[in-house]
Amino acid sequence: MRAFAAIFTMLLFATSASAGEFFTLKGHGGPIMGVASNGTQIATASFDNSVGIWTEARPKWLEGHHAAVNAVTFVGKKLAVSAGDDFALILWDLATGTGTRLEGHRGKVKSLAVSPDSRLIASASWDGSVGLWPVSGGVPVFLSGHTAGVSDVTFSKDGKRLYSGSLDGTVRVWDVETGRELEQLVKHGFGVNSLVRDPANRWLAYGAVDGATRILALDTGDTIADFTLERRPILAMATDSDGDVLAVGDGQGFIMVIDTLRWRITHDFRATLHGPIWALAFSSDGENIYAGGLDDAMYSWPVATLDVFAPMPTENRSFLEDPSTLSNGERQFKRKCSICHSLSEGSARRAGPTLFGLFGRRAGTVTDYNYSSTLDGSDIFWSPNTIDGLFDEGPDQFIPGTKMPMQRIAKAQDRLDLIEYLQRETAPKEN
């Protein structure tokens, strides 16, 4: 037993990205929202506004988004594309780390897919549209027809059709060449969050807000399997390169693994202690599942031995603490601010700059944070009055164009308590 514990401890803190082993990729300053693999590298998208490109355990950081990054995928071996809450896609040159910003959506972009010939990128946006972007450049085409936000997209094997899942409860099929809607494959009573297609083009799986996990035959549209459990919502899906294994992640932190040759559940693994599974992908050899959730690290579990390993230790997230144990000011900070900002020196790759030494500081001057151009040369100095105005009016009104998420605190006493807490906690400590 002691030998097993020692081996487990070594595995738990391993940083090698070897196939068939447990490992983590640590370095992001926020939850992991998307993950992808091209066989030699892993890409991670994070709430911290950045993309990580990992070779073994060494990250290359791609910075350019102005808000949380929700999705990332590779475009061949030389390019990657990401998308986020800033309504934009960025096409990245992996050799130089430079990015080309692709704009046109009017809402956050939740998912991406690349055509089999790597010539076209599809984007799913909460503005209700699907974007089609030529990789070589040119004018994008936007497909409209959904009556609510689009959550996921995937191409057919030949790239001629595109499937889209939406919060309107439908899965729609589009002709890629003409942009014409061909049919509504699914009319579900709840929003559809996730889609994945079998690489052999035999079936399409979808996951929905109500916990539905269903698989449809692509030739007939009939339901061939239903793995709906009591857990909801379904947030992420992935399949291995052969389509023999399907992984499903839900809002309660479980990863369900399905053998698609026999249509049976082989593993039902609690992957997080708290919170959702937002991102799933398989290693190129299918031996590992990569997953992201509330923790700041991506976790990789060997498929064959999932149940041996510990889940993500998300119990230490400050916004998960019992609010009854906190003062009102601390409660406001931990519920409204802590996921983006640290109180200690250094921004620690968070989505926002550190608040250390906040009072009396000019806005936009923390040296280790990548601000948007909105705050260049700002004449705002942080004080009780300006912080009160920020949360009273909301960041989008107080600093038009800011990449700070919309966040208002309506009650004056709550704002006052937060300010008093920040004055105490952000002041440099005397030795």
Number of helices: 5
Q: Spans of 5+ residues with little confidence (pLDDT < 50)?
A: 1-17
CATH topology descriptor of the largest domain? Methylamine Dehydrogenase, Chain H
Domain count: the total is 2
Provide the CATH architecture of the largest domain: 7 Propeller
Distance between the termini: 46 Å
What does this structure look like?
The protein is mainly β and 431 residues long. The protein folds into two domains: 2-313, 7 Propeller (Methylamine Dehydrogenase, Chain H); 318-425, Cytochrome c-like domain (Cytochrome Bc1 Complex, Chain D, domain 2, Orthogonal Bundle), CATH 1.10.760.10. Helices cover 11% and strands 37% of the residues. The chain contains five helices and 28 strands. The chain has helices at 2-12, 328-336, 384-393, 395-398, 412-425; strands at residues 23-25, 32-37, 42-46, 50-55, 58-63, 69-75, 79-84, 89-93, 99-102, 109-114, 120-125, 129-134, 141-144, 150-155, 161-166, 170-175, 181-187, 192-197, 203-208, 213-217, 223-226, 234-239, 245-250, 254-259, 264-270, 277-282, 288-293, 298-302. The strands form seven sheets. The protein has a four-stranded antiparallel β-sheet with strand order 1-28-27-26, with no helix packed on it. Helix 2 (328-336) crosses helix 5 (412-425) and helix 3 (384-393) packs across helix 5. Mean pLDDT is 90; it is low at 1-17.
